[in-house]
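Morning, I've got a small favour to ask if you have a moment. I owe you a coffee for this, so here goes:
>
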Amino acid sequence: MKAALLLSLALATSGAFAAELDRTPLDATTADGQKVRLFPNGRWEYVDTAKAAEAQKVAAEFPENKTRPIEAQGMLIGGVGRLLMPGDKDYNRGSLNPKMR
């Protein structure tokens, strides 16, 4: 009975500890002397703004970073189809099937 009470108390207080975690990024230095900023979600960036801008340009060229914008419509899985952006005449037009109108 005491063990169950202690377990329930531990589970109830674990949420309080998680709410108080420090989420500020840490400044660190790589093995080759580069200054970087480490974020709690696993991301990192250079502290030097020029190097950070250059790294963002390089990262933008990777295929996994070339995703469909959230406001776009269309394009099926695998890049099949047409990507419609807001302002396009066909954006949000609905179906052209007369039975569906």
